[in-house]
Amino acid sequence: MFNVERWQEIFETLKKNKLRTFLTGLSVASGIFILVILLGFSSGIENGVTTEFQQDATNEIFVRTRRTTKGYKGLNPGRFIQLKDEDFALITDTYDDYLEYRTANYSIWGGQIAYKNETGNYRVQGVLPDNQFIENADIGKGRFINQSDINESKKVAVIGNKVSKDLFKDENPINKYISIFGISYKVVGVYFDPGGEREESQVYLPLTSARVAFNGGDNIRNMSFTVKMSENFDEAVELSKNVTNAIENDLKEKHIISPDDTAAVRVNNTLEEAQKIYSLIDTIKAVFWFIGIGTIIAGIVGVGNIMIIIVKERTKEIGIRKALGAVPSSIIGMILQEAIFVTMFSGLFGLIAGLALLELVGPQVDSPFIKFPQVDFGTAITTVFILVAAGAFAGFLPAYRAAKIKPIVALRDE
Amino acid sequence: MGSNSLHVLKGINFDVKEGELVSIMGSSGSGKSTLLNILGMLDEADEGSYVLDNVPIKNLNEKVAAKYRNEFLGFIFQSFNLINYKTAVDNVALPMYYKGMSRKERVEKAHHYLEKVGLADWSHHLPSELSGGQKQRVAIARALASEPKVLLADEPTGALDSKTSYEVMDLIQGINDEGKTILVVTHEDDIAQMTKRIVNLKDGIIIDDSLVEQVRAQQYV
């Protein structure tokens, strides 16, 4: 393998047979290139779709109420259903075993918020500490609302990154005071949200302080929960569905709402949606892998085919070499080493070309459903080696046979 | 090869001494190529013995045969059998590659032998750029390059016109004059007359083995 003379001999042969070398290389390089692009876009679609649905926790159950649309047990339609702390307590007590995070929200749309001379309109929500996990909010600076904020109705606020940029520019907002409808709140944290700017232009207050400031009493606008995820995704979906239905029934019973009134109490669960998306991603992945493996197989067959032709074409040369004193192993070694070198070199070339294209074009792709198309480098290298090994194997049989031919037969005039 | 056995050579007994120039003659099917293949270790006899320079040649596996071919023998073929993508000098250097010589030494020696066959100026030409006679000279240079004990030529002039044939024979005679042992298979009588001894084969046996008065090829060139 590391014989300089052998390498010189091989390079010379390759140089003198440029077209053959080029064609072998091209079939390998294009196979790997196509595979890399396919895998790249498959991962791009996966990334895109995943982030698109990552704005909130995927196992969320969301509860909100409106007016009744149907009369029931002597009550008129059009009655507004107001959630209260006791409803939240009912749900969390009843389903405590199944719930992971829980929050009750009290929100005001279009809150006038000011810092020094900067003002802006943002959604203001009174929340519980668990809201951070349900909204997938990442704390960039400071902290989120905590239990003592709730207990003592502290006048603190956690602002979204967009709000921070709008009002504070480059200033550090922590421990500064913002005013919401004229009431001062101390900023204790800044959060980021994978959902992007829209989700980052909100301000969170402790639920209790928000209700004090905006005369909320013990009202709740909506409630969010996440169910505990079990190992098995299908089981989790089933559980989530059952809890969703149970919550809806409990609330309808408590507030005396007709069981077939779909508007008054709405309980959504995102896990079922997520399941559909994930199975779609799986399908897309499977299709891309199928095409990719097909491409590789075509590449292997191509390399094998070329190897057979090369060996056939070189039968006479092999005979000459044997008559001049070449041992069979040196013949097989020569052909294999040449094949491995060409497939490896062009395989890596195709790999680098594919990665470069993904690197260049990837960021230009302006679609929310394709994000960061990239390939796991390990996977790509593995496929290159599989192709090389398969090419070598495909080349070995004809090389072995050629090395066994008696030189006198190989030299016979056609 | 094949399932039918056929006795091609049926009792051949002859000695070639060092420095001899022997031609093996016979019509096709007489077994002369088989004899040459056995002498060239490209084939092995079912029975009998073959001793080359006091080394008994028997029970050869591919590896040993290759080594002996490389050390003891030089081949010259009717169809030259040069590697078509290698230049003249690289073709001549090839047997030395299998001897394990360094590249520098190989090229130097190859140039020396090309000069000897009068092709020093053609060393960097491909076989396709050479005439038939020139190709055969390159092949002769290649056969000499491994410094073999015996040169085996299978119809060396079979693909050449008579003028070129005589030039090649002149070269072969010159090499023989320097003491190299050479066996030539031919069916052309005038070529055979240019050797020192003619062995005539017919149906697998030697029907005649006699020394002849060598005709020098020089006079026809």
UniProtKB/TrEMBL annotation, chain A:
InterPro entries: ABC3_permease_C, MacB_PCD, Macrolide_Exporter_MacB. The keyword Heme does not apply. It comes from the Bacteria. Pfam families: FtsX, MacB_PCD. Residues 290-407 form the ABC3 transporter permease C-terminal domain. Belongs to the ABC-4 integral membrane protein family. This is ABC transporter permease. It comes from Winogradskyella haliclonae.
